[in-house]
Amino acid sequence: MPALQPHKIRTLIVDDEPLAREGLRQMLATEGDIEIVGDCGDGFAAIVASETRRPDLMFLDVQMPELDGFEVVAALKPDPLPVVVFVTAYDQYALRAFDAHAVDYLLKPVDPARFQTALARARASLQLHQLNGNLMALLQELREQRKPAARFLVRTAGRVVLVRAEEIDWISAEGDYVCLHVQKQKHLLRETLNTVEQQLDPTQFVRIHRSVIVNLDRVKELELLSHGDGVLLLKEGARLTLSRNYRPRFAALFNNRP
Question: How confident is the model at residue 69 (pLDDT cuts 50, 70, 90)?
Answer without folding.
Answer: confident
